[in-house]
Specification:
Strand content: 35-45%
Structural class: mainly beta
CATH superfamily: Ribosomal protein L33
Strand order of the largest sheet: 2-1-4-3
Number of helices: 0
CATH topology: Rubrerythrin, domain 2
Largest sheet: 4 strands, antiparallel
Length: 59
Amino acid sequence: MAKIKHADRLITMRCSVCKRRNYYTNKNKKLVERKIELQKFCEWCRVKTLHKEARITGK
């Protein structure tokens, strides 16, 4: 059975080049105070780019 990602810890990762939201992940907000930035593969740009944490809209 798959793990359920809790909505209170769920964040999106947004590409810094094309500004599209490509990844969803969770974050331990008790230990990590700053925004997450990771090098991830963007399917729209077709290269590895910097992805930054973004708000989830539509709650």
